[in-house]
C-alpha cells in the first residue's frame, strides 16, 4: 500500500527511483511500478546480498516492508519486521545512503511482538549513524475501515473493537506516503521521529455516523468487547495473531495525534474520514 503510493508520488514528481520487489510479488503491482518508469530490482529483505544490490548508488531509502499484510511463505515478524529491517539499515549504511525513512507506528501500552520489533529497529536506526526519519502513523482508515476488519461500507455493517467512544486520529495511507516523500527534502525531518494522524480525531461510533450521513443508510453495528480482545491476545499462539489482537486493543483505547506543529513543518493536505466515506459511497 504505502510503498506503491510512495513510488507513484515520487514518479509524478519526476524523481528517479528504484523499487525492491520479490520474485513472488504480485505481477499486477510490479507492472504498475514498471508503468511509472520505476527501476525494478528483485530481492527480499531476508536476503542481505539483494539489499546490498538494491542500495548501491541510492541517495535515500524509504522502507515500508512488513509481514503484517503482504505475508508470504517464510515471512514473519521476526524475519521481516525485525531481522529484515535491521539488515536493510546495515546495507544502507554500507552503501553510504544519505537518508533512511522508516514507517513505524506510535508507542502502544501493551507489549507485543510487532511493537518489540519496531522499537528495536527504530533504536538500531538511531544508532546507525545514518540520517533518519521515523514516521509513526496511527491507524490507516483504508485498513481499519475496510471489510477485512469488519467495516463493510457496502453492506452497511460495522464491527467495532471496544465500546467505540474513544477518539482516533485516522489517517490515509496516501497521506503517510506524502510525509515520507516530503521528508526527503525537509530539514525538519532529519533525525526526527514524527507521529502522524489525520485532520481530525473521531471515535469509531462517530465514524459510523459519518458513513451513515454520506450514504443515507443506517449501519448495523457489532462490538467486540475489550475483554474478548485481551483473551485473544493472551491465548494467541502466533506472534502475528498476538500483534493483531494488541492493535485491536489499541484501537479500542483510542489514539489522538496533535498534528498542528507537524503540519506547520510539513504543509501536507490530509484526507478526512468524510472524504474517504464519500469515495466509498460514489463507488
Report the CATH C-level class: Alpha Beta
Going across the major beta sheet, what is the strand order?
Answer: 3-4-5-8
Uncertain regions spanning at least 5 consecutive residues: none
Category from helices, strands and their pairing: alpha/beta
Portion in strands? 5-15%
Mean pLDDT: 95
Gross morphology is globular
Give the CATH topology.
Rossmann fold
C-alpha end-to-end distance: 19 Å
State the fourth-level CATH superfamily.
NAD(P)-binding Rossmann-like Domain
Describe the main β-sheet briefly: 4 strands, parallel
Helix content: 40-55%
Number of helices: 12
Order of helices and strands: HEHEHEHEHEHEEHEHEHHHH
Description:
The chain has twelve helices and nine strands. The chain has 283 residues and is of the alpha/beta class. The strands form three sheets. Strands 3-4-5-8 form a four-stranded parallel β-sheet, with helices on both faces. Strand 4 (99-103), helix 5 and strand 5 form a beta-alpha-beta unit. The longest helix has 18 residues, at 77-94. The radius of gyration is 19 Å and the shape is globular. The model has no long low-confidence stretch (mean pLDDT 95).
